[in-house]
Write a structure and sequence with these properties.
423 residues; alpha/beta; Rossmann fold; Tyrosyl-Transfer RNA Synthetase; Structural Genomics Hypothetical 15.5 Kd Protein In mrcA-pckA Intergenic Region, Chain A; six-stranded mixed beta sheet; five-stranded mixed beta sheet; 19 helices; 13 strands; 44% helix
Length: 423
Amino acid sequence: MRSQALLDELQWRGLLYQHTDEVAGLLASGQTSGYIGFDPTAPSLHIGSLLQIMLLVRLQQAGHRPVALVGGGTGLIGDPSGKASERPLADAAHVDLNAAKIRRQLERFLDFSRANGARVVNNAEWLSELKAVDFMRDVGKHFTLNYMMQKDSVQGRLEGGISYTEFSYMLLQAYDFLELRRRYDVRLQLGGSDQWGNITAGMELIRRTTGLDAHAITSPLVTSSSGAKFGKTEAGAVWLDPTLTSPYQFYQFWINVDDRDVGRYLRYFTVLPREEIEALDGATAEHPEKREAQIALARNVTRAVHGDALGAVEEATGALFGGSVLGISQVAFEILRNEIPHVTIERGEPITVSRIIDAFSGPGNLFESKKDAKRSIQQGGFYLNQERVAPDQSAVDDSLLLHGRFLLVRKGARNYGLVEVAR
């Protein structure tokens, strides 16, 4: 996939928002290098960053070299694009630590071994050595205030105020493009549509200082049909780091995507071929209740981000949404332990129905009260490992414990708790 084929692929996937007129010629001329910047002010990328990662993946699939620029230098400043107010300045040590974590996340997606192997570069390499007078003389003189004031990232902040620090971010990003052009012959910058002003500033700086060419491609910002901000849940952002968003919660985000969005997200966030995605579009239209497209989306994105954890996540999901618990792995139960109400009983202590009721009763718990639990039993809505508890049942046989440790408690159709016997 080269030249127009890459642009056509991006167009079909809905990933082409703007590009410079000459970019097709650049892509047709042979292998080129293109970069995207990633902000290390947090210890992990989130799924909003995933769209940009996939742009680099598609660039590499087309035979070109992807360059991921981690903003170890610009992260100390903060990009004003899309921000309504000034961001707090980040600590240098935290930015360095975050940059290292982000590199490891990028390595899950990009191939560093082939002829067009990816590079990860940290702009602290040149920005930390930059002197203020040299920067003003060599970079600042090429930009007028009128030029900078016209950029969307600045315009959106004029009424509320923008500091000189964030106002200058555009020049730092432009300087990044110049340094990457000089050091690694990077001729293309990619990014979200909100970055167009910053990207074109870099192209202008390269043209003025070196006379060399530079090009740009941007993708649209991700939205959801419901109007909710993409990647936000009640718990906050959906992170790629499993310690911030568990693989189970990550999978749940994707499998619960609205029917109106799932086709777009399959195009954006997976490498599934066109024929398969279009078949899933048809499945959504004909049998939306089967959620085939959502399952394919959740599987593909979770596998890409979390690898082998996918199998246990699917087991845990199946256990909570209608599947049998009898065959699921110990790892799946350990996932559930962190996702549903959980109590531990010391080994050797008797397990009884009344003790389970005591453990899971109370405001905000599985049962609002013991009376609520007893009513559930009388109505046939209380289960242990998917087996209905009889009104006259008191003891729980140890043979019911799965893996000798776990007992899944269910109230009604969808409310779960987990009993674990200590090792």
